[in-house]
Request: fold
Amino acid sequence: MAYFKELVGGPKNVHYHLGNSNTDWRQDLLYLKRWLEKHSEVTLDTIGYDTPMIDTSLVGIQTKQFPPRYPQPGWHAISVNQIHNRNGDYEYFLKFKPYDMIGYTIYIYHITPDEANRVRREIGFPDWEPLQISQSEKEVIP
Reply:
């Protein structure tokens, strides 16, 4: 296994060739928790992890919603297994540069509105626009 990783460019690239339990046994969840503690300024908007297999709140990470199936601004943590899932729902993350990597199985992304819109246009989605809330009426303005 170690030699194979060397042949594909090291452990950072193995997820392009292997998936599921070949790369991820949930070994980096505690590292993600430590990373979040160290970076208290970051609040994850979404977390893409195999939550049916393990509840992230068991290790002290409040489970957030899964990332949408199209780019959206914010802070996102996503496992390499989700990026490469069979449906291809999260392959768009490969079009962004990760902000950080937790172990070799979880990527952290900080996506700006401009970056989200660039990739949304590439894959055929309309631009992202934030919802506006009227302060006087406290209702959503489309």
